[in-house]
Amino acid sequence: MDTNKRQKIIQVSTYIDQHLPSSTVRKQITKNYLHLFPNEILFCIFDYLLPIDIVRAFQYDLQRYGVLIQQHIAVYGFNLINIKSNDFHLLPMCLSLIEKQHLSICVNDNYLSTALNSLSSLNTLTVILNTSFEQSFLSKIQHESISCKKLILEYTPSYHRQMNDIDIIPLLSASVNTLILRNVVFLFDQSTISHSCNYLRHIRCILKNENDLHELLIRFPMLISIDIRLVCYKVLEILTILPLPKHFRIEYPSRTVLNLSKFPQETRYYDQTVYSLPWLETNSSLVLRSCNLENYLNIFPQSLSYIRQLTIECTSEPWSSEFVNFLHRTFPNTRTLLYNLIGMNIKLEELPNEILINILEYIGSPVDIYNSFNKLNRRFNIILRSIRLSLDIFLEDKQSLTIIRYFSVYCNRLRVYNVCPLISLERFSQLRSLILIEPTDAQINSIQSTTLPMLEYLASPASMMILDCLFGINQQQWSFLRSCNFYFFYFPKAKLSWQPNRVLCTLKGITCSRMTLSQLLSLLPCLKHLRVDMIFNDSSNWNMEIFKKTLLSLRIGFNQLNYDDLCVLIAPHLYRLHIEMYHEELSLNFAHLGTLIVSLTTRLKQFNCDYRGMEIPIDEIKAAHTLFRNIQSIKSHSYDTISLICRDVI
């Protein structure tokens, strides 16, 4: 910068300091359009931030964002670990936002007192303990009041830390009904004055041996459920029955010789673990520690139908076909199977291709899969092109086109929500489900049985090309297409060359006359579910000789209710009926409607009715016919429409 310019800047600066008050010199502020975003977008932004960062960013506009921050914290919790010292001034504001929420909070030594003083009612308080923090926490907490329903003490690192009853029991205020100790061995000192607690209802912890278990049951007489793991072999010396609660699970060390006479009659003993029958039926979970069938031949004399989750913890023993059959036979209602390999460290790349494909398909998001594994190595490149994924396309941007190019060959489901002319359906030869909201003409013309031979579900505007593939000769028809939604397409008259389609079971979104619908039903002999709107002032007649009544579910729209049309379409096995009336009805005769429906079907399970006009009292509808005895009003999508639903009709 030359000397003259520097001198002019100094002169201007001196003049401003001497003649202008500070209020007239304002800092330039960049416009912030964040407040224009809808709440859904703001929630997505919050997902990438820590709660303390969210509060720091929006602390001056809590009137706009405070409720959103509260809702976000209620879902994800508030973690007070590793907060920097320069953020301590934000703690009162953070705590005020969650004062009435029930959250899990992790605290450490720096701001324990602040958290306890600011939060009057917590559902869960999680305390992360370490060697340096343990003593200061115990000394501080003795003078504070923990007002929470569930107290979790977790020790880190993960090796077992021993804590005495004289340290833990004084922490339990009258509001604490659940205590969980993680990586902490709960010890009972027999030589000191015993502390007891009469308001604790649930406990999960690690105990040293059966003597400590007996002592725990004495100290906490009001327990409802316990989940205990014992780490030593020593068993209780006395032979009295343990005063166990109704729900209990007690895991013993391996090779423990157990005397079951100390337990109640409704007790089950599987793999060194004792369960009460109510505990099994309530939690519906069980752990097995071997893959060897011989270990279970005499343990499970009958099937356990109440087990929903089964965990198998063992080494890399091979599974025999007999063991698999045993699992199916003994646990017929299991929906979740967890398999934990003990003593083995397996890297992701060591897994077989079949398991890797299942893992990647479980992740689900094509963008995440592509960004994480693309070009990792040749093997993963091959695997990525073999997984079946669902693609949701909202914008035709560079990322979407890249994902389509990479995954289109094995894409299982495609949903395109906007106009995207660069997307060619000819890439998706294995597609099974297709939803197009605003397709181009080229995309509509690409929906053919030769282009998409594996299609099972289609939702898009209709075209004659699609109808020709539905009702053409056998070589033209789709072999697997079972459901179509055409967005209320005016169905044309049937061509003489069209053939019956015996695959399609569900058809939605058509508008047609009585004659056209008669022809359509004759072309769909296996149709079970139909959603149709009848043409207003239709002068055509039904041709009942060319079709059979096969419908199980019917949703029909009228401009004016026509009882004769209902008589034609309601089949004897119909179990769901939904009637929509688009024009205002002066009077709706529910007594006549109920009598008509009962005379046509005896299998009806659900009835819906949407109508416009004067609202009829629910009690009057219930009294009109016994069919509507359970009818109730539900929220409608339109302000001028009255919606009714009746379940368990017949």
What does this 3D model show about the protein?
- With 650 residues, this protein is an alpha/beta fold.
- Among the domains are: 76 residues, no CATH class; 62 residues, no CATH class; 42 residues; 244 residues.
- Helix content is 29%, strand content 22%.
- The protein contains 21 helices and 26 strands.
- The strands form three sheets. A twelve-stranded mixed β-sheet has the order 15-16-17-18-19-20-21-22-23-24-26-25, with helices on one face. Strands 1, 2, 3, 4, 5, 6, 7, 8, 9, 10 and 11 form an eleven-stranded mixed β-sheet that branches. Strands 12-13-14 form a three-stranded parallel β-sheet.
- Strand 23, helix 20 and strand 24 form a beta-alpha-beta unit.
- Helix 3 packs antiparallel against helix 4.
- It is globular, with a radius of gyration of 34 Å.
- The chain starts with a helix and ends with a strand.
- About 2% of the residues have low confidence.
Overall pLDDT: 79
Helix content: 25-40%
> Count the helices. How many?
21
How many E-type strands?
A: 26
Radius of gyration: 34 Å
In percent terms, what proportion of residues is strand? 15-25%
Task: Identify the overall geometry.
Answer: globular
Widest sheet: strand order?
15-16-17-18-19-20-21-22-23-24-26-25
Which key features would you list for this structure?
twelve-stranded mixed β-sheet
Q: Helix and strand layout, with pairings?
A:
Blueprint lengths: L2 H17 L19 H8 L4 H8 L3 H15 L1 E2 L11 H7 L6 E4 L4 H7 L3 E8 L1 H11 L6 E8 L5 E4 H4 L9 E10 L14 E6 L2 H10 L5 E6 L16 E5 L15 E4 L2 E4 H7 L1 E4 L20 E6 L6 H10 L5 E6 L11 H11 L2 H8 L4 H7 L5 E4 L4 H10 L5 E4 L16 E4 L4 H6 L10 E3 L4 H8 L11 E8 L15 E7 L1 H10 L5 E6 L18 E6 L4 H7 L6 E9 L5 H11 L5 E7 L5 H7 L7 E3 L7 E6 L3
Parallel strand pairs: 1-2, 2-3, 3-4, 4-6, 5-6, 6-7, 7-8, 8-9, 12-13, 13-14, 15-16, 16-17, 17-18, 18-19, 19-20, 20-21, 21-22, 22-23, 23-24
Antiparallel strand pairs: 9-11, 10-11, 24-26, 25-26
Helix pairs in contact: 3-4
